[in-house]
Amino acid sequence: MPFPRRSFSPLSVKTYGMVFIVLVTLFFSFTSWLMLNKIHTTRLEVERNSQRAASAEIAQALQQMTKELEQAALALAAWDETRQQLSDPSYYGYWRGNRALLGGIVPDYVMAVELYNRQGHPLGAVSRGMPSNAERQPHTEITKQGGRDFIYLTQPVQDLEVMGQVSGYAVLKIDFRPALLSVRTFRYADAASIALSLHEGEVIRSGLAERVLYSAVPNEEMSALLQFLTRYQFQIAVIVLLLSWVFYVALSALLAKPLLRLSQHIDALRGGHDGLMLEPLGGGLAVKELEKVRRSLNDYQRELESMHASLDQKNTELWTMAHRDPLTGVFNRRSFDEDWKMLLSVASGHRVAVSVMLFDCDHFKPINDTYGHHAGDQVLKSIAHALQDTLRSGDRLYRLGGDEFATMFLDADIRPVEEIAKRCVEAVDQYDFSTLGIKEPIRISIGLAHAESVHAENLAVLQKQADVAMYYAKRPGHGKIALYTEDMAHDGNALFSNQVTNAVFEAISSGACLEMHYQPVVNLGSRKIEYYEALVRIRRDQELIMPGAIFPVVEGRRLEAEMDFAVMGKILENLRDGLIPAGSGLSVNISGPAIVHPRISEKLAEFEPFLKDYNLVLEITETALITQLQRASANLNQFRATGFKVALDDFGSGYSSLGYLANMPVDIVKFDISLIRSLEQDDERQGGIVEGLAMMIRKAGYSMVAEGLETEQTLERAGRLGFSHGQGYCLGRPSPLAG
Amino acid sequence: MQGLKRVEGFLMLLAFFMAPLAARADTVEIRFSPSLVGAADYRPGKAGLPAVLLLHGFLQTRNAPPMSRLADALSDAGYPVLVPTLSLGVSRRNKSLSCEAVHKHTLQDDLQEVHQWVNWLASHGHQRIVMIGHSSGAKDILAYLAGTPNAPVERAILVGITPIAVDAGQYRQAHAEKPLAPAQVLPLRRFTMAYCKNNYVATVPAYLSYADWTADLIVSRLGKTRVPLDIVFGTKDQVAPPAWQARLMKTRVPVTLIENAGHFFDGEHEFELNDRVGEILKKKLH
Fold this sequence. Notes:
By secondary structure, chain A is an alpha/beta fold.
């Protein structure tokens, strides 16, 4: 399910933090404005309430003071001592100065008391400021004198002798302000501000309340509270700013920076920096969730690295599997091809010396068939081990397939390469294969190709040239090592051309293009032809393909038995056609593999009708390739019983030895051409050996045939050595027989 | 003893409930001069019982205990009772006079007023008159009886009689300054007298009229009155000078001691005072 497309760009954590701080600041500013506005409204309301309370308080105080003054005046008028003074003012001065104010009758704020008789005259000299005569009726006067507000209260003193009569008058002088302040403690009106709105000397008798000036006491608690709230608002603002700053710093330290580090770490990982483990984010103030992300990422990174390591290992294993031969451990064909391409690309345009060395185990297939695949595998491993040990350090050994190995040398002269090749052959020769239960000697052949060229095409053919040289090396007389030369080019071309290969396959499959040439085998005593050796040729497009080109293809593809059977069919055809002179004989070459082939009996059975007219000889070639000696021996015994004679071909070459002669039921021994040619070279030592061999074999009862007799002198010497028959150009070249 | 206390409690309860009856007194007045009127509470009693004139102490009024309470008790007991207030120069005085007030009055003024009240009782048909005074009032009665041998008084009970305390130096100085001839207006002086500590404002003659009644004078007069006297005295009287009780006991006047009672017979001693006075009246007048 696809993610919904976002319509905005993602913002950083810091930006979100700043937006949050701005929102918080705006919200706080708004709430602060509301609160300050409320504080202002409350302050106005409190001031109004304070003013109302002060007004009520002043009115109440005035009422209270008036009442208290009236009571004081009444008490004074009723006081015994007042009446005493009115009846006997002898000591009025003392009384006014001491008793009137200090007698406890009038409040302390009464400044002066004066008594007047019923006529309103003072009992004594009036005090300063007091009226000289009393107004004979109760009344109150308020006036301002010397900047101070005074109340003069006149109170009649009742005459107790005569009801309803007045015995005198008492006048009280009161300092207005102390009087008012004494009646109560002012909470709402400012006591210091209380005064009367009077002009100096102005006298009023009523409307006192309207003349009182005062101001309301600021509500200290409320003012303090409002001031506190205002200060609190600013403190909160500072705290909010500090907290915002701390929040921003914390956000940066705890989230933004760790996230940035996380992002950089992931970028570094993406950039291929392996082995990076993210250190704890945030130092001592790690965020749990981020720490979990970090650990998860590190765990994931570890698992990824582990997976990479595993993949690298797998890749290595895969590369090894792809480039190494699983059996021998040396490089395989793919590796060879890749290295070869690499070599060609490196060498292209430069003059470099390149050598290719091919190794092939001689007769590996029979060994494999005889001792089993396990033994064959052990042989291959042993050969690879021996070769690897012999090659120089850094030289790569490749197994191209089957028993074929190869190596290549860059920028190396051919001579050292040839020396290496020799050491390789010797190493394999000296390897003790008997530990594997293999009795037969195991040897290798080496084909070498060398070139120095700046042209890639000249180097590209080196493999093919080494292959050609290999087959030359496998041929008898080449010492197991062959360096490709231009002379091999023709044969090589023939050998490995498709035309030859096709001709060989066609010959085996149909026998149509097979052409048998027969070379006479002459009795050296009578010099008569006793029988003919059938030699195969393949005619293709008027061109005759010789055995030198045929058998490398046959052997290369392990078609020895099939080729033998095809040849036998052609010989039978010639026999039936009567091309072979009656009374003579015919020698048929049968390879080692064919001897033990299951169909050999069937094929030879077809020759049995001709045994009565022809002396039929089975020439066993390449006995070294006989892997099942007992079966071969049994088969040969069977064929001999049927009437066939058995000849051991190429005796003295690498393929036929005394060992085989001793174990095989043989009637005739055909000395290899290399032994016969040694007789022509006057090599006494080698000639002596041949003579000794001939004598020994002759004494053993075998008939001996000398091959390759090309001169009369050799022919005579062969006769002297006891060879009963001979074969060679001087006795007759191979040619088709005409009926 | 337990039974006595129970009786005392009953009397206290009775006095409490009878208080409203005692308050129904008539105020009677005597004009001593054109500008001076004296007042007294008068409650008529049972016929045949002597009238009792009760005189308050120093600067007090007729409403001051213990005489006011004793007057109530005696009135309740059926005795005609007259309780005057000495004017001390103040017409119809109804409050105690403070020390700092102008004290122009003299003991002779007081005795004159007492005499007029005795005459008032006699003029109102009371042939038998008993005088009871407390503290300075007792001294006034003693001075009155000593100076008025023919006073129509049958018996007098002096409750807590004690010489008035004065400062010896002031007293001597006052005698030294005592004017030989009466002057129109004498200067005022401050004296120590009774509980007025150097704030008794009076003229020298006025001061001396009281101060001259020393302890010796009192003791000398106790045995020389025609009218038989009784003394009731509290054993814990703190106002009296030291050994005053012993001096009283040595006179020929019978002394009834009330144990643990102070000068003003406060608390429960007030009832004991009433009982003892009642007993004296019952015992010595019937």
